[in-house]
Amino acid sequence: MAERQSSASYDSRGETTSHSKGSREFVSHTEYAVEESVPHPNRWARYREYLREPFAEFLGVMVLIIFGNGVDCQVVLGGNPKVNPSEKGVGSILFCWLSYLSINVGWAVGTAMGVWVSGGISGGHINPAIYIFAQLLGGIVGAAIIYANYFHALDLVEGPGVRTLATASLFSTYAASYMTNVSAFFSEFLEGAILMVVVLAINDKKNMPPPAGLGVGTSLGMETGYAMNPARDLGPRILTAMVGYGKQVFTFRKWVAIYDFYVMTLTLVYSQYWLWCPVIAPIMGAQFGSLVYDVLLYTGEDSPVNRPYAFMLRVSHFITDHA
After folding, report:
1. Class assignment of domain 176-212+220-315?
2. Which residue has the higher pLDDT, 37 or 39?
3. pLDDT in tens, 114-125
């Protein structure tokens, strides 16, 4: 009886099993060890478990940039007679007429693909809110892939080894010449705000999600180039600075002339357009869009706006604590 009790053991499910021979006991423990190690079969799998969300955001932004920069290069370089001699006359006019819509559709598809790649793991932010470094790195790698793919076409358009802002705009954003920095900032702020309102509306369980559309892309962004997403602009901008475009991608509109009507003088002011307009403005716009949606439409209990008598509760607690 004692012998039978000593040979009894518990399996991985907590059930009693009897092992009369050492070999069976060894097999049982081996199977248990293998079963235990399934979630992390090796060291890389263990590290990956903690990095899946940043990896997902990296791939999501990389896919976004590959589609977006890819369609920019394909439309602009493909429509250049130096690259494609057949694109001239009536055909080139039709190509230009369709290029604006093609770019919007390409970026929309890139956004959808990026969200599908990362959405199930990290939520598909693909916009620097949480995983900033991973998204920035994804933007750099995505732009590098497209740059390598269109390297020879760029040489045909600008000359071997010549890189100017004319083609740098295929990778990152640059405002139109008639735009002031204030106007460019407001344009990106507005795009970021509207984009955030739409994103919140789609994810609001108490709202009916609208059909997927191209509203923001087809109505805004022509003047500044659709930054809307700091990772979409800053990552490719860093890449272009590394591959031969130089510091001009960061010194665009470095000095801004401001005229003082009172003293009748013209002053040059140091400006960081690349930071304020395509990076900070979309972030501030997104925060403003969140506030607008929160105040006007959102009814969830997790919103500070919807907490019952929040201000009065704080006042009553303050009075109670100091009575």
Report:
1. mainly alpha
2. 39
3. 888 887 787 767
Pairing of strands 265-270, 255-260: antiparallel
CB 196 within 8 A of CB 290: yes
Residue 304 is classified by DSSP as: G
Distance CA 34, CA 52 (A): 23
Q: Which stretches of 228-289 are assigned E, i.e. beta strand?
A: 255-260, 265-270
Cα(184)–Cα(112) distance, integer angstroms = 26
CATH architecture of the domain with range 50-162: Up-down Bundle (1.20)
Residues 6+ apart with CB under 8 A from 292: 193, 197
Question: Which distant-in-sequence residues (6+ apart) come within 8 Å of 250 by Cβ?
Answer: 237, 241, 274
Worst-scoring range by mean pLDDT, 17-21, 213-217, 273-277? 17-21
Q: Look-up: residue for tokens 């004692």?
A: 2
Element (H or E) spanning 71, and its range? helix 43-78
Q: For the chain, give every residue range classified as CATH 1.20.1080.10.
A: 50-162, 176-212+220-315
Q: Please state, in angstroms and rounded to a whole number, the distance separating the CA atoms of residues 68 and 113.
A: 11
Separation of CA 303 from chain center: 24
* Lookup: tokens for 143: 């732009």
